[in-house]
Structure formats: C-alpha cells, structure tokens
Design goal:
CATH architecture of the largest domain: 2-Layer Sandwich
Order of helices and strands: EEEEHEHEHHHHHHHEEHHH
Helix content: 55-70%
Strand order of the largest sheet: 1-4-3-2-5-6
Length: 329
Amino acid sequence: MEKMTHPVAASKAELPPASITIGIDVSKDHLDAARHPAGDTVRVANTRKGQTALLRWIGDIKAVARVVFEPTGPYHRILEERLAAVGIPLVKVNPRQARRFAEATGKLAKTDRVDALMLARYGALLDPVARPVRTDIQNRLAELVAARRSLMRDRTATLNRLKTLTIGLLQRHARHRLRQIEAQVTSLDAATDALVAEDAHLSRRRDVLASIPGLGTVTAHALLADMPELGMMEEGQAASLAGLAPITRQSGTWRGRSFIQGGRAIVRQALYMPAIVAMRFNPDLKRVYDRLIAKGKHAKIAITAIMRKLVVLANALLHKDRLWTPKAA
C-alpha cells in the first residue's frame, strides 16, 4: 500500500461528523483514493486484500459523508459491495460530468491520483445524492439484459449481412446463426423471467412497468436493469438521468432550440420503440403526441417528448406502487 500524505492545518479530529469525502479512481489493477479536505492519498491493489487495506486507511466510517467514484464496469462492483456493506454512502459519477468539473476548476492533468483528488473535491463541493447499491439479483438481471441486447445487435447485423450475401454456403451459415440467436434469446428471456420471479419486490416493479401501454416485459426488464433508481427520484431527476430533460438555450432576446444531452443512452434506446407503440395505443400519450404535431413540432421531437413522458410515468407509478390506469376522458 503506497501512502502519500499532505498535511493540512485542521486535523481530522477537529472535523465535524460525516464531513469527509473520499474520492476513488478505479482501475482493473489498482484503487487510488484521496481524502477531502485533508488531501492525503493512498494506492492499493484492486483485490479483496487491497480493499481491506483501503477500509483501514479510511478509518472511522462515521466521519465519511460519501465515497465518490466513476463506474468502471466489473472493476468497481466488488468494491461497491464492500463499502456498502459497512454503511458508507456511495456516489457514482458520470465520467463526463467529472471531467467537466476538473476542467472548470483548472485541473487539466490526468493521473490516477489527480483523478481521485478531483472526485473527492467534486463530492465535497457539489454534494451529489448517494444512491442505493444494486443487489446481487439486480446485478444478475443487468447481465442478462446486456446479453440479450448484444444478441439483438448481432441479429440485426446478421440480417443486414444476409441481404448482401451471394454464396450459398455463407447464406446457410447466416440463417443458422439467426436460428441460434433466436434460441438463445428465448433461453435468456426464460432465465430473466425466472430470476425476477425469485424476488417479490422486483417482480412487482416489473408488473407495474409492464402495465404501461407500450412497455412490454422486455422493456420493463431493461428499465429495471439500467435505471434501478426509478421510483426513488423526483420527476425532473428521472428525465435528466435518462438524458431526456430538454436543455434550453437562451441569452437576452435570443432563444435557441432546446435539445437533449447526456444521461443514459442505453435507457433512451430501450424507450424508443415503446414510445412509437405508446403514441398509437396509449390514449394519454397519443393526445400528447397529436398536440405536439398539431403545433408544428417535428416528429422526432414529439417522440422524444413521449419517451420523457414514459420515464416520468414509470417513475411515478413505481413510487406509488400502483399499476397504470387510463385517465378519464
């Protein structure tokens, strides 16, 4: 374990409870951690032994307001579980937001140690909301959903390739691959249904989402996997997290077009086709779509608005734990 200490005027003993923010830069092999406001840093191996050493370095967990890190696929998962198990509030930061914060504060250098210090400062100054850690069953659901998504991309690529093939052998191979994919998708869907059925709470959340016209079981599973925070946020937060909140550009008398940016692209992809279906068969959302088109809005803008309505509706229904019912005419 490598320690780098930077003394400050105030000792840790003088700090009020839960006033410390830890920033952690996560990589495959190492964890670089920094403590704010003290400024001391440490590097440990990204192993269970290294994580134990990190917990010793952190010390009194009651003094820790939050630990801030960027999600790094499988590399942060075990660390996340270890920290959550001892009751430390965790904040996962979008890498783009973290980098913009670093640029805004003039921290242009990029090393693991600098990133850890930047994440600690980001958490201390902006006070981001800590989110519950995914359970083991949520992690398994996310793996199954990601596997299905990969197969569907493979299916689209194979279908497109089949249209251009002229050699019989290659055509047979492509058709065989398509049959393989269909069988694997069926198997994954069955495994996903069985997994969700193991957890009554997760099963209920799936049923609530699937009750919304336009959102089938497949989309419900995708939302549960890719946006587990649904039902625990404000309306605007849900739209922002999905990257569906309109960003307005205005200066003086000039007003530019609003647009969407950032957020979870994977959620927007999951909602696109359901939005197309919803604007035809969900009477509430059909009225919204028709009203926007009547105002001269482009179809893509109207569809984006429907996607936003869907994620806000999903968040509200999950928060209230009730199935969708149509509004009175």
